């Protein structure tokens, strides 16, 4: 036997020694491995694995390195956490029955709101003090103005609580 053949035989024996613990671990965790294989089969049948392969083939290693560095950067992670805090606050706000009812009411009547805004912008009226007084005496205008003023007050109170940086 030549020296190269002896080295190859030693390498094969070392590989066999490395494979045995892997096979033992695989047999011990057979259920988890089968679940993972079932998941991979479903992903393959759905075409998602092929799409992921195509995406990874389209990017050079430097692009992947850039993406991994970007996605794990402190700035990105900080921005992501801040965004998730805002999303959770919005979700919490929308969970309130009063808030969701108010938003639904506004959204279902949004055509009238947009039409009024556009008509007012396209055909502005000169408003005297007496005309303004007559406008705010209208119950619907008074209700809208009161709602906006109350919202502005609540926003002012909330914004005063924002810490200075």
Number of strands: 0
Distance between the termini: 76 Å
Uncertain runs are: none
CA gyration radius, whole angstroms:
33 Å
Secondary-structure class: mainly alpha
What does this entry look like structurally?
It contains 9 helices and no strands. The N and C termini lie far apart (76 Å). The longest helix has 26 residues, at 3-28. The protein has helices at 3-28, 30-46, 48-58, 61-71, 74-95, 97-108, 110-122, 129-137, 139-160. The protein is mainly α and 165 residues long. The protein has a domain at 3-58.
List keywords for this structure.
165 residues, mainly alpha
In short:
The protein has 165 residues and is mainly α.
Write the layout of secondary structure elements.
Blueprint: H1 3-28, H2 30-46, H3 48-58, H4 61-71, H5 74-95, H6 97-108, H7 110-122, H8 129-137, H9 139-160
